[in-house]
Here is the input.
Amino acid sequence: MSRFFSSKLNKLVPYVPGEQPKERDYIKLNTNESPFPPSPKAVKYAGEAADLLQLYPDPDCKMLTEKVADMLGVESQEVLLTNGSDEILNFAFMAFCDESSPAIFPDITYGFYTVFAQLNNVPYEEIPLEEDFTIDTNAYMGNRGTIFIANPNAPTGIALSVAEIEAILKANPDHVVVIDEAYVDFGTESCVPLIRKYDNLLVAQTFSKSRSMAGARLGFGVGCKALIQDLNTVKYSTNPYNINRMTMAAGLGVMEDEAYTKKNCKTIMDNRTYTMEALEALGFTMTDSKANFVFAKHPAIEGAKLYQALKNKGILVRHFDKSRLTQYNRITVGSRAEMEALVTAVEAILEEQS
Here is the structure.
């Protein structure tokens, strides 16, 4: 770093995204992207929007916000569209965390929570997951700070029930509880209906996973009107035009093609089942993932070694160096052909290992 870098940030450890290699073609199962292209309507609308790129986009995202609100059964004033769900999460750290309300989240979860806390100079507490990687909800009772929970969690894919989350909301009435539902469309019940019952609930979702728009950067937050007003204050104090015209238009196209999204989600869930059953037959143990990925380990081969062996065969998965995770790999669920190629490669690796 340069000698000009602010001392308040010189200890910041940035988030490390999954590999995006250019040197060869890989089967990419490492960044939880969808194996399907975006809806044809999304592509069409984005192309049409490109003709107006000389003009600023609507800072209120009025049309898209209303579409999302209609889908969720809430009012448009209860929704805020953002540049990916990462932005809504960062806004929440900025708006709802400080010395009197530190951030609280699991020690094994989405890696950006720690970064956002450090970036915003927010004190934080990491609560260890149980030995089986589940969240101990009792550890989040007590009104100590702003809570962030990914549901399903990452990289484990394990989900809490709505009843368990509601218990956390009840136990923390004076602090915001942020539920990050990036993977909710792959078999988990959303907490969005609870926003009318609890004014301390903020739900974050994304278009990146189930709606095939990871490259467009579009997400949203849902909460009571007062919470959304708070977040809008942050948005309009940083970047009012946070969503570009083409992304906004693509989002409208996706919202008009929910049948396409639901069909793709079902296919991914079916492919998840196939993959888990095939890996289990090969001796793997896995968490009960409700996301678009599988979190797996094998007793006969170290996680890092399996990751490298798969990479050598042209298949990328995600490996984590954290001590409790080092034997595991997170494997994105892709197309059936991609998952069959993965299983074939794993079979060959295990045979070579023996």
Summary: The mean pLDDT is 96.
